[in-house]
Design goal:
The complex is a heterodimer.
Chain A (H helix, E strand, L loop, with lengths): L3 E7 L4 H14 L4 E6 L18 E4 L8 H6 L3 H7 L1 H10 L4 E5 L3 E3 L4 H6 L5 E5 L8 H14 L2 E9 L2 H17 L2 E2 L4 E2 L8 H4 L3 E3 L17 E3 L5 E3 L2 E2 L2 E3 L5 H10 L5 H15 L23 H9 L1 H6 L11 H10 L1
Parallel strand pairs in A: 1-2, 1-4, 2-3, 6-10
Antiparallel strand pairs in A: 4-7, 5-14, 6-7, 8-9, 11-12, 12-13
Helix pairs in contact in A: 1-10, 4-7
Chain B lengths: L2 H5 L6 H7 L1 H6 L3 H9 L12 H7 L1 H6 L3 H7 L13 H16 L14 H11 L5 E5 L10 H16 L2 E7 L17 E5 L2 E6 L1 H11 L6 E5 L7 H11 L4 E4 L13 E2 L3 E2 L8 H4 L7 H15 L2 E4 L2 H10 L6 E4 L3 E5 L4 E2 L9 E8 L6 H10 L6 E8 L10 E4 L2 H4 L3 H8 L4 E3 L10 H8 L3 E5 L4 H9 L4 E4 L2 H9 L2 H8 L1 E2 L2 E5 L2 H26 L1
Parallel strand pairs in B: 1-2, 1-5, 5-6, 6-9, 9-10, 13-14, 13-16, 14-15, 16-17, 17-18
Antiparallel strand pairs in B: 2-3, 3-4, 7-8, 11-20, 12-19
Classes of the chains: A alpha/beta, B alpha/beta.
Protein name (chain B): Glycosyl transferase
Protein name (chain A): Glycosyl transferase
Organism (chain A): Gluconacetobacter tumulicola
């Protein structure tokens, strides 16, 4: 049987989540190879030892062959960057000869067997999971869910599976190219990172499977139509389908507000959330500074304000003038922006 | 008091506030004024139905404006659909506590502060205390002389029975009680608290205990082991002690479902009845007890395999459930009810309706989640201002807050006597007891006490002993319901009053049974009879 190559993408601040994903994935698919695409660098004193992780392989952002890497990275905030590399990483695995590739967001935990995905890649080139599978009825749910998907994308790109056949590759290359140029959170201009692009996929590519099983990619945005229940044999279901994976988008109390709204007065979804929090607490990386991201600061140590990234992204002249925008000191982009702000 | 404060009166529970915050009670100032002046800023709650911290967290506009959150809720928030307490509050708190407790538990043994006895010292204490008779080696999870509960009550009865028979009752509990099983750590033994015939001798390591027992036990008498509970123990240690001194009968009780899961009531995340699914199930995968369950079950199974004991359950319902889910080696499985309900033949009509007084609805026992306290409290809150009903709690509060309109009668059976609860139900003239256990009760004293006190019992239908008890012993004195909605509807529609008018109460008594000792005594007598019959047959030949 063809080996499935699975990957996720994150910075170190999500290492706890990557670990939970790796462990839960290996529990159900020990044969799948799990790669971590890392858009970060270790802080001083922090050791990341792959041998101690539930991760089979590591690919650092520098290994992806992205041209003008510093400049390109600087254009993106943490979420944009960790999503922008997904297309490149996908193509890299395809170039290595992978025949079946599954991308899964780090904040997902696997609860059951995913063999149906593996099998579906024999006949389909791309598999997508829509945020919602059934229309909502209440106004608040329509606003939260259906209108949310109109803004952020019909399909949730926390999951995508791609075949190594030519049409699968054509999708991967198209997505890679778009993400290299336009992977931004800019909803007013029709962009939402890597996700909104995929609204085009069913029209652009052949044999795309829109996975309509409610057990896949259950999250706060579809809970209204997918009540979680647990039967006496201990099977967890979402809308009567076996729960395959749950997308734990927000794990703070803010995330609980949406669960409260759509839990249907049932405790099970809170059990899932509190279990996940417990898993994260147990797997929190030791010695990693709070909110660490190597690309959050200039070399001087000063945080990079969002408006600096935006100015750099929007102005080709600035990008040409400052090909290494993270640098500090004389003739640096940081100084340039400071002076511009003073003016 | 200004008008604004006065308007909050209806949403403020003075009794609750003063009971919850004794420091305010000491100030001798008006509690509502205290809440409005400083209480809400200190995160205090004005009633069981309003959570100050939650309201401020979920409504940052209110927090930012520095407005009294109760005032905001009463005059604006409730009309805007803002919530006063977190949805599913009690259940969510239980699940979170369950995970927190798991992180907090240190599975390694703890050395007791008062130290342990040497084998020699323990041996001389045992020799001085032993009667010349059989020994019952009894094992449970805590000191039955200090704690209140069904298991402790039975152990006390067993000890008394042994005393009457001049048998020895040697009780072992973990010197440092804990949840789950104790880990075995080399060089760090799990110390046991040793109690002989009701007197604590001290703490001892399993090795010292074995040495002392082998030396000090009265010779020529059998030793029987009665395992009431393995919680807090290393079953391997208990097995070694049994193996060293016990060549006779070994009984393992299933007072709860500890032999199936460390969640003794089979509550997933200590919250929802789980039906004991396989340990590799998805449900166990998200339960705070699930991760360790396979290793836990392996240790329990090894204990059963080592001894093939006699299994005893406090009811047929409990035994059936255990047999359904446990596949451990055992010689025989018996239901041995802890007590028998004796109801009088005379029927007393319910007074309600004819006298115009409200129907008195009570919760009996400890304000504990698995016993259904939150369901009762919700019911009491729902009908707080309904003149048809009056709500009572008879038992122990254990610092669990309650709405002020629930009339509290403190009853502690350990201090007030074994029939104190029944007497209190009669004295308070309780009409209805809501017994909404969230797990399949293996016996449930409260249900027996409610019926013996002449109350009408409302309970959920399903597994466990309570539905069986009601169907078999008092079918006319209770109702089994399908859901909490049905319970609420029963009160809301007034149907409960009609049912009470048609039913009649019987009062009675709960006769305590003698637990394992009577069975062991009977077995011993039977053996002696068989032996003498065999002897006479041999002689006749």
């Amino acid at each position: 049987m063809t080996k499935v190559r699975c990957f996720t993408s994150a910075s170190f601040s999500y290492l706890d989540r990557v670990r939970v994903l790796g462990e839960t994935l290996h529990r159900h698919h020990p044969d799948w190879e799990f790669t971590f695409c890392l858009s970060d660098i270790e802080p001083e004193g922090f050791v990341f030892n792959l041998d101690e992780e539930p991760i089979d392989a590591l690919v650092r952002i520098g290994e992806l062959g992205i041209p003008n890497l510093d400049s390109w990275m600087f254009e993106h905030d943490i979420v944009e960057l960790c999503t922008a590399v997904k297309g490149k990483m996908l193509c890299r695995l395809l170039e290595q000869g992978a025949e079946k590739i599954v991308y899964i967001d780090p904040d997902i935990a696997i609860f059951a067997d995913l063999t149906d995905i593996e099998r579906a890649l024999d006949t389909h080139n791309v598999i997508l999971t829509p945020h919602q599978l059934r229309p909502d009825t209440s106004e608040i749910a329509i606003r939260d869910n259906e209108i949310g998907s109109l803004k952020f994308g019909i399909y949730n790109l926390g999951f995508v599976a791609v075949s190594g056949r030519p049409e699968g590759r054509r999708f991967a290359e198209w997505w890679r190219d778009r993400l290299l140029s336009f992977c931004f959170d800019d909803v007013p201009n029709g962009l939402f990172t890597d996700q909104k692009w995929c609204d085009h996929v069913p029209a652009f590519f052949d044999d795309v499977l829109i996975l309509r099983d409610p057990g896949y990619n259950v999250a706060s945005w579809n809970l209204s139509q997918r009540p979680i229940a647990i039967d006496s044999n201990g099977v967890i279901r979402a809308a009567d389908s076996v729960l395959r994976f749950f997308h734990f988008t927000k794990v703070t109390w803010a995330g609980e507000v949406m669960l409260e709204r759509y839990c249907g007065n049932r405790i099970e979804v809170f059990e899932l959330m509190y279990w996940y929090r417990d898993q994260l607490a147990q797997r929190a990386p030791k010695g990693l500074p709070e909110r660490w991201w190597a690309f959050a600061r200039y070399e001087s140590g000063n945080p990079i304000p969002p408006q600096h990234r935006l100015a750099y992204r929007q102005d080709g002249a600035l990008r040409r003038q400052f090909p290494h925008p993270f640098s500090s000191g004389a003739n640096s982009f940081e100084n340039f922006m400071k002076e511009r702000e003073v003016r | 008091m200004n008008d604004h404060i006065a308007a909050l009166e209806h949403f403020f529970d003075r009794t609750f506030y003063l009971r919850s915050y004794p420091d305010v009670a000491e100030l001798r100032i008006d509690p509502l004024e205290h809440y409005c002046a400083t209480g809400w800023r200190e995160g205090r709650n004005p009633s069981i139905s309003f959570d100050t911290g939650f309201y401020l967290q979920r409504n940052p506009d209110v927090a930012k404006a520095g407005i009294n959150p109760l005032h905001h809720y009463v005059f604006a928030g409730r009309h805007e659909g803002r919530k006063a307490i977190p949805p599913l509050r009690d259940m969510r708190a239980r699940v979170q506590n369950s995970f927190r407790a798991k992180l907090d538990i240190n599975p390694a043994p703890t050395i007791p502060d008062e130290g342990v006895l040497s084998a020699e010292r323990l041996s001389s204490l045992l020799q001085a205390g032993f009667l010349d008779g059989p020994i019952i080696l009894s094992v449970s999870h805590d000191d039955y002389r200090k704690n209140v509960g069904g298991v402790q009550k039975l152990i006390s009865v067993e000890q008394a029975t042994c005393s009457e028979l001049s048998w020895n009752y040697l009780h072992l509990s973990p010197a440092c009680p804990r949840l789950g099983l104790a880990d075995r750590v080399p060089g760090l033994p799990v110390a046991l608290s040793v109690c002989l015939n009701g007197t604590k001798l001290g703490n001892a390591t399993p090795a010292s205990l074995i040495q002392a027992l082998v030396h000090a036990r009265p010779k020529g008498h059998p030793v029987h082991a009665v395992i009431h509970h393995l919680m807090g123990h290393a079953p391997e240690d208990i097995g070694n002690i049994i193996q060293a001194v016990c060549h006779d009968r070994i009984i393992v009780w299933t007072h709860d479902f500890f032999t199936l899961c460390s969640s003794v009531q089979l509550l997933r995340n200590d919250t929802v009845y789980c039906h004991a699914p396989p340990s590799h199930s998805m449900a166990c995968g998200i339960c705070s007890h699930g991760e360790d369950r396979p290793a836990f079950l392996a240790r329990i199974e090894a204990f059963f395999t080592r001894f093939t004991p006699c299994v005893m359950a406090p009811s047929e319902a409990a035994l059936a459930l255990w047999l359904k889910h446990a596949s451990f080696s055992h010689a025989v499985a018996l239901a041995r009810p802890l007590g028998r309900l004796l109801l009088s033949d005379s029927h007393i009509p319910f007074e309600t309706g004819s006298t115009g007084r409200p129907i008195r609805i009570a919760f009996l026992g400890q304000r504990a989640y698995p016993k259904g306290w939150p369901i009762f409290q919700n019911l009491a809150e729902h009908f707080q201002n309904d003149p048809r009903y009056e709500f009572h709690h008879i038992g122990l509060a254990h610092s669990v807050p309650a709405a002020g309109h629930i009339i509290y009668t403190k009853v502690n059976i350990a201090l007030d006597g074994p029939d104190a609860m029944i007497r209190a139900v009669v004295a308070r003239n309780i009409d209805v007891v809501v017994n909404w256990s969230l797990w399949p009760e293996t016996f449930c004293y409260a249900a027996y006490e409610a019926l013996a006190g002449g109350a009408f019992l409302l309970a959920p239908d399903g597994e466990g002993n309570v539905p069986v008890l009601l169907r078999r012993s008092a079918p006319g004195q209770g109702l089994l319901l399908e859901s909490e909605d049905e319970l609420v509807a029963l009160l809301a529609t007034g149907k409960l009053s009609n049912i009470l008018k048609l039913s009649s109460r019987q009062r009675g008594y709960l006769l305590a049974e003698e637990g394992s000792i009577a069975w062991l005594r009977d077995q011993r007598e039977q053996e002696m009879t068989n032996r003498s019959e065999l002897l006479s047959e041999v002689q006749d030949d």
